[in-house]
Amino acid sequence: MQEGGLEMGIREVIRRSFVEGYATGSLEIDAVFVCILCTAAIAVYIYMVYKCINKNSFYNRNFNLSLIAIAIVTSAVILTIQSNIVVSLGMVGALSIVRFRTAIKDPMDLFFLFWSISVGIICGAGFAMIAVVASFVLTVTIVVFSLLPESRRSLLLVVNASSYQDEGQVMQIVDDSCQYARTRARNVTRGGIHFAIEIRVKDQKELIEKLMELECVTSASLVEHDGDVTV
Description:
It is built from eight helices and four strands. It has about 230 residues and is α+β, with helices and mostly antiparallel strands.
């Protein structure tokens, strides 16, 4: 009878952790363990997804590991808040004075950070099944849209010419070779002209060779940037 009662108790804790949520009041230790383990499992899944789809030049392992820690800490905070109203008020006041100075430049990193925090909140509230379903839908959405073909990225063409009077020859070659061209900067000096042009071109090598055939052109270079193309 005791073994049957223990098994029923574990099943009840798991069912509440995934579906019903925790009632306000004291939490049993087994419920806390189940909540933290569920959060950790989903957080590890987020870790693996981030590692697989990360497109940055340098993979930041510390940031990825922090996603697991943030989810678990957030889950523990939510458990503490809903178990005691006095503690919850004090914790809200303590968290309100925390300031984070780390700048997140990549929007996808911000998305994964918010995903990790959300999983911690949802699991801490006792609705782990919602976190599982949401994580699955988010993963499918990310994979599907990442597989869609991208428009041709814009490049920045930097040209240095010996005379501003030769700008027309340069622009003629650029217009004939590029699908899109827009002058972003122009700097005229006594020694010549320097300008930057945003372009979309199929054959980069051919464009550079045509420009370097001009006697007035002293240098020509193509620079990529991290921005995406808007169609």
